[in-house]
Design brief:
With 48 residues, the chain is mostly beta strands. The protein contains no helices and five strands. A three-stranded antiparallel β-sheet has the order 2-3-4, with no helix packed on it. It has a two-stranded antiparallel sheet with strand order 1-5. Bound molecules: zinc ion. Zinc ion binds next to loops.
Length: 48
Amino acid sequence: MVSQKICPKCRSKDITTDWSDTMLGKPTLSKYKCNKCGYESRIFPEVG
Ligand SMILES: [Zn+2]
């Protein structure tokens, strides 16, 4: 089972992972962006 990020604002599951920060060797600092409302955060809730 793969966990799915969900947007805290609009509940969309259409989330893009922004890996730009991982180029610095810090994979835990990856960001996520909602493709529906444009919300960006490092912390997105997950649903199972
Ligand atoms: Zn959203």
